[in-house]
Design a protein that fits this description.
Blueprint: H1 2-19, H2 24-32, H3 36-43, E1 50-55, H4 58-74, E2 79-84, H5 87-93, E3 101-104, H6 110-120, E4 124-128, H7 134-142, E5 147-152, H8 166-172, E6 177-180, H9 183-191, E7 197-199, H10 204-213, H11 219-225, E8 230-236, H12 238-249, E9 255-260, H13 265-274, E10 279-281, E11 294-296, H14 303-306, E12 312-315, H15 327-330, E13 336-338, H16 346-354, E14 357-359, H17 363-375, H18 377-393, H19 397-406
Parallel strand pairs: 1-2, 1-4, 2-3, 4-5, 5-6, 6-7, 8-9, 8-12, 9-11, 10-11, 12-13, 13-14
């Protein structure tokens, strides 16, 4: 089985190489790993104690960030090596000041695993949420390097519980402690014989609390909102935007901000053309925008602060592969709607059960959710409080990890 895994790694490398001339992401993945070990040797101080933190991409980085910053604040003697698998995470956070070294993760082959650990010599390894790299985990175990996973979540249908999952079940034995999000994950792992499991929750709750506390004042958003109520749509795609523009056109007294997940010119132009009350892109603002009903947030890094001005929210992605980050909106106490593909996200399921969020499959369902929030201030306040309480109640995963790893 492991031989097949190693063959698959070789095929993956070949596939990326073949795609690189035509695919930007594949090219970044390939080029980012060129001379990787040489660059690591030049940068990493072999005499300094190092903690290795691995994340798949940008979302997992946000989960790992509170842990990195907690370690840096309370155990500054450690250097932090941060690795990414995906270019979409690495390229955005390659200059993150909280880590001492930031690199792509080498392809998971036996020789790469050995060379990587020979260079890094970590005192500890921390994996965030998932990414069970078979060779790296085996080599960490062979070297008796304490290894942890944080904010992990397990489901009955995952590879670990299939008849073909022996190799993956073996990989779980590499972890000294598994910090999981929920009791169900702990119960599933107990079936596999793992008692070294801690239900710590999700470090994203700690991260969004940090984000909310650091929210910035944005004069242009204040000018745009004025005395109106504000509906913010985060990480939207085409199907989401069609619903939201129609909702805006039928609610002319409400202001709307739409933050597309990807800044596609055609989609942004369609929003501008379809908005009865007028729309403007943030990067095109020139003068007074108080007469516009829709503001298109075609810039990065602002959305988390913009939620602080909102009264209602919608999170995109639910008509595609899955919804995006709901917690940034929830931490500001916003009612949340999203499309039908949300089942893999525990926080979405939780907030639906509590009444702080809803899933919609069409415009009529969106309008039925929105109208009571728009027309009944007491209902709006009650739903908002549910979201705020939920995020506050679930904070603390970072401290649980730190206390059990560094203070026991």
């Amino acid at each position: 089985m492991k031989t097949l895994y190693n063959i698959a790694m070789g095929c993956y490398r070949l596939g990326v190489a073949l795609a690189a001339p035509w695919n930007t992401k594949a090219k970044l993945w390939r080029d980012g790993r060129k001379s990787l070990f040489d660059r690591m040797r030049e940068s990493i101080d072999p005499s300094a104690p190092t903690i290795w933190v691995h994340v798949a991409s940008l979302g997992e980085f946000e989960q790992g960030r509170p842990i990195i910053e907690k370690i840096k604040a309370e155990r500054p003697e450690y250097k932090i090596l941060l690795t990414f698998f995906s270019p979409s995470g690495y390229e955005i956070r390659k200059n993150y000041p909280g880590a001492d070294y930031i690199f792509y993760l080498p392809l998971d082959t036996p020789s790469n695993a050995r060379e990587f650990l020979d260079i890094v010599k970590p005192q500890m390894a921390v994996f965030v949420k998932y990414e069970y790299w078979i060779n790296l985990l085996a080599e960490l175990k062979n070297r008796n390097i304490p290894t942890y996973i944080v904010s992990a979540i397990f489901r009955r249908d995952s590879i670990f519980f299939r008849s073909t999952g022996n190799m993956w079940r073996e990989a779980l034995k590499s972890f000294e402690l598994l910090f999981v999000q929920d009791d169900n994950s702990k119960s599933l792992l107990a079936e596999l014989g793992h008692e070294n499991v801690v239900v710590a929750g999700d470090t994203r709750f700690d991260r969004v609390a940090q984000i909310a506390a650091a929210a910035k004042k944005i004069d242009l958003i204040e000018q745009f909102k004025g005395d109106s109520r504000l509906f913010v749509t985060g990480s939207s795609w085409g199907p989401d935007e069609e619903l939201i523009v129609r909702l805006a056109n039928e609610n002319p007294t409400i202001k709307f901000i739409v933050a597309p997940h990807e800044m596609e010119q055609a989609r942004m132009a369609k929003i501008e053309q379809s908005a009865v009350g007028g729309a403007v892109r943030y990067t095109n603002i020139d003068g007074d925008i108080s007469d516009k009903q829709i503001l298109i947030l075609d810039t990065m890094g602002m959305l988390s602060s913009v939620y602080g001005y909102a009264d209602f929210s919608y999170i995109g992605g639910g008509f595609g592969v899955g919804i995006h980050n709901t917690l940034e909106a929830a931490t500001f106490g916003l009612p949340i709607a999203f499309g039908p593909n949300y089942q893999k996200f525990k926080e979405a399921r939780d907030m639906i059960a509590l009444g702080g969020a809803t899933s919609v499959s069409n415009y009529e369902e969106l309008e039925r959710w929105f109208a009571p929030l728009r027309d009944d201030s007491e209902h709006l306040a009650a739903v908002s409080q549910i979201s705020k309480d939920y995020t506050a109640r679930n904070q603390g995963a970072t401290d649980k990890f730190f206390d059990m790893v560094f203070k026991r």
